[in-house]
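In this supplementary section we document a worked example of the pipeline. Step one takes a protein sequence of length 236 as its only input; no multiple sequence alignment statistics are reported here. Step two produces a three-dimensional model, which step three serialises into structure tokens for compact storage. The input and output of this example are shown verbatim.
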Amino acid sequence: MSRVEHSTKLNLERIVFIGRTFEEYLDMFLLSNEDLKGKKILDCPAGACSFTAIGNKNGLNVTACDIAYEYSLEDLKNKGQHDIEYTMEQMEKSQSNFIWDYFENVQGLRKHRVTALNDCINDMKDSSARYVPGTLPTLPFKDEEFDLLLSAHFLFMYGDRLDYKFHIKTIKELLRVTKEEIRIFPLVDLTGKRYEFLDEIINNLTKKGYMVEEIKVPYEFQRNANSMLIIKKGLR
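The serialised model returned by step three reads:
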């Protein structure tokens, strides 16, 4: 990796390149393939998730956006494989912090993460235009370019590292590029506690005329991470 080439980018070592499968997305966001047909969808930040790859194979119109897409496929594949192995080692030590209904065990989890990474990398080879580099809170898309935006395992999870202003700016930007609604999952931080400023954000959005709902979903791996936020624009 050239130091000069990546001198203005976030160091790849600071990016965790792990992803969820298409099926996990449907459960996390309480969606079906039929719900998504005919919609232009953005997954942001998408990481190594297979939602875009499998979604487009299923006849959907999905675009992925992530800061990591500035890097080469080789770098991302190597990074993803390393991150999966490191994460599985940590999981072995902290299994009690998670609920194992969905994956059964660490090996089941590893299989899902490897599948997601491989599907993502293979699709990036074939359809690179679907994978757009972007760094929140600024996205390289037009106003209301997408009907639906899905955002998983980023906002709220890192409340200890991303301050309240960042969350506000990012949600404003997600809404800017979305025509109908955004869905954010989960609503807890890395310790499993509900994001401390979530009610303030909900009240702020409601006052601006958005319809905001907090909804339980049939997916819980991290304890207490079983709800999503839906923000709808249509009723403003």
